[in-house]
Amino acid sequence: MSARIYLKVTREKSLLRKHPWVFSKAINKIKGNALLGDTVDIYDNKDNWLARGAYSPESQIRIRIWTFDQKEEIDKDFFLKKLTKAQQRRDWFIEQGQLTGYRLIAGESDGLPGITIDKYDNFIVCQLLSAGGDFHRYTLVECLKELYPKCHIYERSDVDVRKKEGLEPVTGWLTEPQESTICTIEEYGIKIQVDIANGHKTGFYLDQRESRVTAGKYAKDKSVLNCFSYTGTFSLHCAANGAKEVINVDVSQAALDIAQKNVQLNNLEDANISFVKADVFKLLRQYRDEKRTFDMIILDPPKFVESKAQLTGACRGYKDINMLAMQLLNPKGILFTFSCSGLMEASLFQKVVADGALDARRSAYFVDRLHQAPDHPVSSNYPEGYYLKGLICQVD
Ligand code: SAH
């Protein structure tokens, strides 16, 4: 029998709203034995059953909820149902965009806390961030094999957050090993090479897909500086839409090497695309000193904020790059600026960009807003799932 977890008085509130986490401080007592990843039943202080979830004895998020339905067991059928539903939720835009790369499971937002599953052509990449996902690894693989029999499955659980759960990093094939870990996906007509073993995260940043298409629409005849380019997909959309010049900037040479291959894959060798391995913060200052200017700049930095304590410092970082970018923009220039830090709320981000405009002595007009792609949906029960925000600014 699974262990029973009893919550303190009033601490059931978030579960009644179907939020998928129970913090250690909410727990009053445990009856029975609960080990890492075990399925446990949660009760309020009056012995009413509330939910069933995965136990993680070292994490502050002590339980992640699998189900709010007492009849539902956490077995193969449960995972099959979740995966099938997630696929169905995505079918409409996968078809619309002819996409061969998409996020199939976005953790809590798809009802599978701590589990990320991305599909890249015939590869499926699993990232198990928490004890529950880790515990059910092989059931998940069985389900994926059943639903996607042609796919090869790889694990990329090499993430720091696993430490908080007392889990070691894990990577490697979960099905028969393949010779290559590289594949090509297509998003809205653009081909992109993805290395599932050596790329960032699970190999690629799927969450910016629709924003890249939007960037393409602004790029005709413009000189574009694509900062934090990774494998250059923003640039490919810009070049394919007639940008006059595109410069990719990233610190990772491996990412820039793939970016170069992507140019060939898309027959864009004749476009004016270049690659600079540099620290964006330094390069923007250098360009300012050299009085270089651009018609359009894209700023898509990595996450600056891991905890609330880092928020002030992160605001400074965001303000700094936005100020520098605006200083480099020609009159009527376009800035695409993003923050993928969940803790940085949209209104605060807009304020920070506004502060950047003031310091740059420029006027910025927010002409549109961008968000994470639809395969990274935000569940109404889990607002924390909203993390990626972007602003399109016209800068006078
Ligand atoms: N825009 C990309 C995703 C960017 S992810 C896309 O559409 O795919 C963030 C990127 O920033 C990573 O590729 C990382 O290597 C790079 N990076 C991180 N810090 C950097 C810095 N200080 N200067 C330049 N690049 C940096």
Radius of gyration, CA atoms, in whole angstroms: 23 Å
Low-confidence stretches: none
| Cross-sheet strand order for the largest sheet | 16-15-14-17-18-20-19
Mean pLDDT metric: 97
- Which shape, going by the Cα principal axes? globular
The level of helicity is 25-40%
Q: What is the structure about, briefly put?
A:
By secondary structure, the chain is of the alpha/beta class.
Question: Describe it for me?
Answer:
This protein is of the alpha/beta class and 396 residues long. 30% of the residues lie in helices and 30% in strands. The chain contains eleven helices and 20 strands. It has helices at residues 13-16, 76-96, 131-135, 137-147, 161-164, 209-218, 233-240, 253-265, 280-289, 311-328, 346-360, and strands at residues 4-7, 21-23, 27-31, 39-43, 49-55, 61-67, 101-106, 115-120, 123-128, 152-157, 170-173, 182-187, 190-195, 223-227, 245-250, 273-277, 294-299, 329-339, 364-371, 389-395. Helix 6 runs parallel beside helix 7 (233-240). The mean pLDDT is 97. S-adenosyl-L-homocysteine (SAH) binds at residues 200, 205, 208, 228-231, 233-234, 249-252, 255, 279-281, 300, 302.
